[in-house]
Hints:
The complex is a heterodimer.
Chain A: E1 2-4, H1 8-21, E2 27-29, E3 42-43, H2 48-61, H3 63-73, H4 80-94, H5 105-127, E4 131-132, E5 138-142, H6 149-159, E6 165-169, E7 174-179, E8 182-187, H7 202-215, H8 224-230
Parallel strand pairs in A: 1-2, 1-3, 5-6
Antiparallel strand pairs in A: 4-5, 6-7, 7-8
Chain B: H1 3-12, E1 27-28, E2 35-36, E3 44-45, E4 51-52, E5 54-58, H2 85-97, E6 103-107, H3 114-130, E7 137-141, H4 148-157, E8 160-162, H5 170-176, H6 182-195, E9 201-207, H7 214-226, E10 232-237, H8 254-280, H9 285-288, H10 302-309, E11 316-317, H11 323-327, H12 334-344, H13 351-357, H14 361-364, E12 368-370, E13 373-374, H15 383-393, H16 402-408
Bound molecules: iron/sulfur cluster.
Amino acid sequence: xxIYDGSxxxxxxxxxxxxxxxxFADITPAENYQKxxxxxxxxxxxxxxxxxRVSARLLAxxxxxxxxxQYCFLAGLADKEKIIxxxxxxxxSAGRSLNGNYADPVVAAALACLKxxxxxxxxxKGLLRFQELRDGSFYAAIEPEHxxxxxxxxxxxxxxxxxxxxxxxxxxxIALVYQDGDLQLFDNSAVHNARDKHAAHELAYQELWxxxxxxxxxAGRKNPKxxxxxxxxxxxxxxxxxx
Amino acid sequence: MDLQEKLKILxxxxxxxxxxxxxxxxxxxxxxxxxxxxxxxCHSWSDDGRCVSLLKVLLxxxxxxxxxxxxxxxxxDLPRAAFTPxxxxxxxxxxxxxxxxxxxxxxxxxxxxxxRTMEELIEVAGTLRERAHFYGYIHLKVIPxxxxxxxxxxxxxxxxxxxxxxxxxxxxxxxLAPDKKPQVITRTxxxxxxxxxxxxxxxxxxxxxxxxRDLQIVTLAEELYRRRNLSRVYYSGYMPVNTDRxxxxxxxxxSAAAEHNRLIRLREHRLYQADWLLRFYRFKAGEILSPExxxxxxxxxxxxxxxxRHPEFFPVEINKAGxxxxxxxxxxxxxxxxxxLQSRRFHSLDEQALKxxxxxxxxxxxxxxxxxQRLDSARQxxxxxxxxxxxxxxxxxxxxxxxxxxxxx
Lengths: 243, 409
Ligand code: SF4
């Protein structure tokens, strides 16, 4: 058993160590680790150079391989390390990208994991709701299943470059902040409740949006089941039109 | 009248417009607000389960015309309102900044004249682009009969333009919308085509208000795609909003109304499936329907219906068949067909592999073989048995499922 610190660099370092020691035991983050009776546990110390060698090796096979690993790492699934490690081993032993091989169970598991992450990121590109604050900047909170903030960065920077904004992943306590052309990922400490700091006209626009949302639906065709299927209830907490 | 009241009236007035897609352009500009994403983004889903992507409103619901099927027709007594251009610009910008929308879909009743209305629509789009530096998505309706230079100007500011063909045939249009001339609509669509807006031209037509069969509608759609180069055709199942002796009667009893509702949604759904076959599955209208089968089947989707009529085409060998043939198998969509081609390069595929690839085996198993083998339990069935078998499986249909079909193929 390899125990790593939960960072991407740590995970790749663990992979490096596994190959170096020719010991392909499970990799698990420290926060999930429970000591088993007969297990030998090795604590892996994150090392940038070791991680870089693994990512360079994957990149040499194909950019897609590294991308699969990165996306899977963002997954909020308990067995993501297993999926990633199995995928890396399978790919490295084939010596080429197997990403087209949907029929391979190991590759299929990794691609399915990637898809879950990518899908939630796509969903939240739509479901994100900003509120304008008194200083003219915009605030949005989300509680995604997967850690998709990094995947929103490029999209939101391209789209909202004219305004300062902050997206808060309230579940993980991290925030993506865009200010004066600069994009950064922060931990929780700087984020406070935004509600009492609304810009003067913020509530008026929220109200207008709700009015629009109600009136655009055809009354004779109400279909809450379908609505929930596309827009699962777990996202409603931060949706202006549902509050 | 305050803005809330106007928004209430003018969004309700636009809700029968079915097009919402915001796809087709990809753009990121350095300064200003916004970008457009080519796949399109749904920002919400309304209570009827439709994707909300654009601020879809009418500039005004005042109208000179008296189209029988339209809530906003002149002879209806209802509250009327009109946005000022500034109000619309402000709503669009503020909604966009809050990530409520991808952009604006602006249509209008014809208050004074087609040209005047067109000028007002252009003023909104032009100001958004040039003064407010708005780079989100803009879809403008083109008013039939608007002058050529106005259509050209509109296409400078809008990503997509649409002129509604309204009904499936010229006689139906003359009957229900005598103010609109078929030649004028055709001419307007030609103008839009030559103005070539970035995300293309779409159109919309109402089905179920007039007696055309599905064959006629699917053939019309094919012509619009192939000859007129349209990007999308939208079908709007007729909702009885007016009493008019030219229209199917309003049904008062709730059960009859519900049944009408179900059938018209089902028809819409089947038309979208057929439309999908035209656009992405290399089907011809004449393959989907024929004078012998002039309507889409109520119980099975059009691709399955085709397969059951063509037993000689099957089974398809999964490890050899080309893309076009794979696409003909019920249960194999665009994505699975591509994955089959990719995965086959690694090794030949069996039932488990097909499952992982995402083929809907429940349906596909009767139509394919893997390296010469029929799938285990699949015995030979006659088309008639399969039809009964499939129709027994078909769950009650959810309206709006065309969106699922879009994703799942
Ligand atoms: S022109 Fe348009 S708004 Fe006016 S009545 Fe006809 S369909 Fe309705």
